[in-house]
Specification:
CATH topology of the largest domain: Rossmann fold
Shape: globular
Distance between the termini: 62 Å
CATH superfamily of the largest domain: Cobalamin-binding domain
Number of strands: 17
Largest sheet: 6 strands, mixed
CATH class of the largest domain: Alpha Beta
Bound molecules: iron/sulfur cluster
Radius of gyration: 24 Å
Structural class: alpha/beta
Number of helices: 20
CATH architecture of the largest domain: 3-Layer(aba) Sandwich
Length: 568
């Protein structure tokens, strides 16, 4: 069996930044199995450090490797220096565990966490010598995608043998079972695709039809990953993650994740405490990350945090709670538990005025934020980060100026505390996402987003806050890629052929190459950015998202009412 890693010399690796990204052999790597019935490779189309922090990869890795008949390996996007080495030497991309070329696996599962990884997916297939289009794949691995950015699968339809819509951990084993049976029966790729389309949550471009979003109903009773691979290179999140619940019912009208992961399913406190102990034992990590979309909404959070504190394994053990909604209840919790990591406070008010927060159904008031700022005044929290969107539906300049007013109030409070608080503001253009009440809304154009951003920057130029923003063109592009139809696949392919990759990385993103891709394909961004009447058939309407379209429409109307001062 070929092991590609063995073909690369130490001298060659010395020229590469962080070669440990490409060597595998980490602690807790799944042991090799002789003659498995199926070889799967889990691909994360971004750098090792990001992929090794991705929870879906950890879940699938342990789920599949628990099976004695399945081997699951990992592969990530190589940084351009290592890609250049592979291409120069004519070597294909490979699975980290065995060094086996991707083209020799039975199936490749690709997680799509954000749209800006789409060109990386094509680069990975190309580097692996796997045809980009499902139509050209009569042998070799099947390529199956899933993840939040595949909730509208049309832009990637030409590339995928199948796309999973919704939760993946249950259906991934069902897919593997079908593939094992198909392999034994000697089925063709087309026959396999025809079989996979019968699984709930699996959409097959060759046989397009209706599909129902998959919901993992057994989540609460399921065992999370407890023996995760310890990265060779420090990952972006330096903690052992424990998913305490899935789903969020807050109903923020812009939030794709809120609708994608419904309904809310909580793991019991007693189980979580047991899992946490095992997880920390297996990984040697001293920090435990309590993960969910909105951790302060876990119904027994106080009990959980105190229970974890009592069951502490290591003297320096700490807990990090990355997605908190800030209110008095949360502050009381943070104050009462000494082992919670107190790095920084993060709020996502998203909009500058209460009127607009009502429009988007963001349930946080200015007073909530002010009271948290005051309550944590003398605490160890040194930084406060605030996220705002611009270009939201029904937004006016008054709402944008509201951002400035709110931040100035916070600066005044931060100035009086000891130690002083550093405030940073992150601005991003709103992107209307499929399966949200704002899926019909217009995407503000670049000039307008820039004008609104300048209002905030000018308003805060004499203040102490740091302001950063997302480049307007990226917002526009994300809008095209997330609300696109099948033609957008040609755009992604043209961009890849123009040399686009790592589009989420500032140093690699090339607006010129994407603009050329629009010209090459004759597509107009404006066709995808426009507002759409609710009577229009949307490219993703064939998906039963388990959130009725009528409900989304009603929510859109309520947003419009809130904009004019009515009840939301
Ligand atoms: S923005 Fe946060 S609180 Fe709102 S729906 Fe999304 S995940 Fe839930």
């Amino acid at each position: 069996m070929k092991n590609i890693i063995e073909n690369i010399s130490h001298w060659e690796l010395l020229e590469i930044e962080k070669p440990a990204r490409y060597l595998g052999g980490e602690v807790n790597q799944a042991p090799a199995k002789t003659a498995p019935a199926l070889r799967a490779c889990l691909v994360f189309p971004d750098l090792y450090e990001l992929g090794m922090s991705n929870l879906a990869i950890k879940i699938f890795y342990e789920t599949l490797n628990r099976r004695p008949d399945i081997v699951a390996e990992r592969a990530f996007s190589p940084w351009p220096d290592f890609e250049a080495l592979l291409r120069r030497r004519g070597l294909p991309l490979y699975g980290l565990e065995s060094g086996l070329p991707l083209s020799e696996f039975d199936v490749i599962f690709i997680t799509l966490p954000y749209e800006m990884t789409f060109t990386n997916v094509l680069n990975i297939l190309d580097l692996a010598g796997i045809p980009l289009h499902w139509k050209d794949r009569q042998k070799g691995p099947l390529v199956i995608a899933g993840g939040p950015s595949a909730s509208n699968p049309m832009p990637v339809a030409r590339f995928m043998d199948a796309v999973v819509i919704g939760d993946g951990e249950e259906v991934i084993t069902e897919i593997c079972d079908r593939l094992i049976a198909a392999r034994q029966a000697g089925a063709t790729h087309s026959e396999i695709r025809g079989d996979l389309k019968n699984l709930e949550g699996v959409w097959v471009p060759e046989f397009p039809g209706k599909v129902r979003r998959r919901v993992f109903k057994g989540f609460a009773a399921s065992t999370p990953p407890l023996k995760m691979v310890i990265p060779n290179v420090q990952a972006i999140h330096n903690r052992a993650p424990l998913e305490i619940f899935r789903g969020c019912m807050k109903g923020c009208r812009f939030c794709n994740a809120g609708f994608y992961y419904r309904p809310k399913r909580e793991r019991p406190v007693e189980d979580l405490i047991r899992y946490a102990t095992e997880l920390l034992q297996n990984t040697g990590e001293e920090s435990l990350g309590l993960l969910s979309l909105s951790t302060s909404d876990y119904c027994r959070l106080n009990e959980l945090v105190r229970g974890l504190d009592k069951a502490k394994l290591y003297p320096e053990q700490s807990i990090s709670i990355p997605s908190m909604r800030m209110n008095d209840h949360t502050i009381a919790l943070l104050d009462s538990t000494p082992h919670i990591r107190k790095g920084g406070l993060t709020f996502a008010p998203e909009a500058g005025t209460q009127r607009l927060r009502d429009v988007i159904n963001k349930n946080v008031t200015e007073e909530d934020i002010i009271s948290v700022m005051k309550a944590t005044g003398g605490s160890d929290y040194r930084t406060v980060k605030l996220y705002f969107m611009m270009g939201l539906p029904f937004e006016t300049d008054e709402d944008i100026e509201g951002i400035v007013t709110l931040v100035k109030r916070l600066e005044d409070i931060g100035r009086t505390t000891k130690p002083r608080k550093q405030i940073s503001i992150s601005l991003s253009g709103f992107v209307p996402k499929p399966f949200t009440p704002f899926q019909w809304a217009e995407q503000a154009d670049m000039g307008e987003l820039k004008r609104r951003r300048q209002i905030v920057c000018r308003g805060l130029e004499r203040g102490s806050s740091r302001v950063s923003w997302r480049e307007e063109y990226l917002c526009l592009l994300e809008s095209v890629l997330s609300r696109g139809d099948e033609r957008v696949g040609a755009l992604i392919e043209a961009a890849f052929k123009n040399g686009c990759k790592f589009d989420g990385w500032h140093e690699h993103f090339s607006r010129e190459k994407w603009e050329k891709a629009f010209v090459d394909t004759g597509l107009q961004a404006a066709d995808y950015l426009r507002s759409r009447p609710t009577s229009e058939v949307l490219p993703w309407d064939f998906i039963d998202f388990q959130v009725p379209r009528a409900y989304l429409e009603k929510e859109f109307q309520l947003a419009a009412q809130a904009a004019t001062g009515g009840q939301s």
